[in-house]
Each structure stands twice: as C-alpha cells, then as structure tokens.
Amino acid sequence: MAVRVLAIGDIVGTAGRRAVRQILPGVVREYSVEFVLANGENASGGTGLAPKEANELLDLGAHVLTGGNHTFRYRELYAELDSNPRLVRPANYPPGVPGKGVVCFPDEINPQIAVINLIGRTYMNAVDCPFRMADEILSHLDSRVRIILVDFHAEATSEKVAMGWHLNGRVTAVVGTHTHVQTADERILDGGTAYITDLGMCGPIDSVLGVDTDPVLQRFRTQLPIRLTAADGRSVFSGLLIDCNDDGTARSVTRISRVTDS
Ligand SMILES: [Fe+2]
Ligand SMILES: [Fe+2]
User: pLDDT tens-digit profile of 25-52?
Assistant: First the structure.
C-alpha cells in the first residue's frame, strides 16, 4: 500500500482556513495525495480549535486533525476530542484529560495509517515525557498499521531533531509543528523515516507567526500584557509531501510552500 501523504502545519484563524480552502484541493489533485494530516490548534481565532472550525477543516479535505498546546482552549471541543475518530491531541498530557493521542485511519477495523500526536517539554508546559510516550504507543499499536505519522508539536529544534532520531526506523514520518515557520531541513533519515523540524503554518504572512504585528511589537517594546489578535490577508500554505512505501518507510519528501493571492 504505497501512499502519498500531505502534512500541513498549524492552520491559523480565518486567513489560514481560507488558504486551505484555496490551495489544498489543487495540491491534492496535482500530487494525487491520498491522506491529509493537518494541525488545527490555531484554527479558531488564531488560538484553539472549536467544533465548528474542526468540522470545516475536515470537510475541506483534512483526514485527521492534530493538536498542540492550544487544543484545550475551547471546552466545547472536549466531547468531540473523545468521540471524533479524526481528532487527535498530544498523547503525553496527564492521564484523564479529554481526547486521545493516537488514531487509526480509516478505522479501528481496518487500521492502515496511524497518527500519533506528541508535545515537547523544552520551553513549554510540563507534561509527561514525549519520548517514553512514543515508545509506549508503538509497543501497543495494531500490527496491521503500515504507515505511522507523528506530529511532534514542540518549540526547541533540538528536541524535535532528537525525536526524529528516537523514532528513526520505527515510524514513517516525524513532522514538527508549533513554531509556524517552515524549516528547510526535510530529509529521510537512514532508517527510512521522513523528517522535518517544522512544517510551517497555513496562515497570514504579513504577521508575527499569524498574529497581528502591532500588538506583538507593543508587547515586546513594553512587556505589558497587550491582547494579541489573529492577523488576516495574504497567507502562506505550508506543508510536506511524503511518499510512503509498502513497508512503512518513506521514499521521498517534497516541501510545499505557496502563497494565496489575497
Ligand atoms: Fe501553533
Ligand atoms: Fe502550538
């Protein structure tokens, strides 16, 4: 089962969703993409994910939405995180929080693709160890799963690179999210695992990581708790195409970065 996967980074607010609507269908057609993985943690107003925007993104062509540090912002999503098999949140949150950290596609009866979501600990909130959690999930994963995709939502480049090596040869791809700027280090590690430190965002380009520039500058200049707002306008659509082999290794990777007209 050779599969072509497209992973896209943090979708930020209205502009990010508009970029997905404008660009995703064409990329899927152009590259015959069969599975779309998207990070949705910033889709609602720039921070968090509400059920309405989650469903909008799933309707637009994302097969699974991953999360991050903003995923739990909207309480309305909690029940959906539990029940919707296409929503996943970082696995290494404390036991008992809503949702699950791994999902299988198309379903549990015929699991072909597994998506694992993890979050980093360096310069981020204290959570359980993502490295040990990855090991634990892999030790229990259904043996019929062929393609394993990991979204590692983390701040520090070193922690993300380390996760790539930790999972090298054991998963199909480790893609980084959270920092919103695409990195140019995409490669296939020697064990056959596709890797990129950050997919980059789908969101407004004339901004600071998707946030309106002025309040961010005021914050940096004054250190006051200025309210931040999601930017709008011309957007970048960022992601990584991953060609997956039948044996679950990656064959090739192609970075995608396109900008909308408006
Ligand atoms: Fe983000
Ligand atoms: Fe994040």
Answer: 999 999 999 999 999 999 999 999 999 9
1 Cα: distance to centroid of ligand 1 (angstroms): 31
Ligand nearest the Cα atom of residue 119: 2
Q: Is 166 a catalytic residue?
A: no
Domain tally, the chain: 1
- Using an 8 Å Cβ cutoff, are 241 and 8 in contact? no
3-state secondary structure of 117: strand
% of residues, the chain, pLDDT over 70: 100
For 182-204, the pLDDT digits (tens) are 999 999 999 999 999 999 999 99
Give me ligand 2 centre to Cα 249, in Å: 27
Q: What is the CATH number of the domain that holds 76?
A: 3.60.21.10
Burial code (b: 16+ CB inside 10 Å, e: under 16) for 177-187 equals bbbbebbeebe
Q: How far is CA 244 from CA 99, 147, 157, in A?
A: 27, 7, 24
Half-sphere exposure of residue 63: CA atoms within 13 angstroms, side-chain side: 20
CA gap 36, 34 in Å, rounded: 7
247 CA from centroid of ligand 1 (Å): 31
> How far, in Å, from the CA of 41 to the mean position of ligand 1?
6
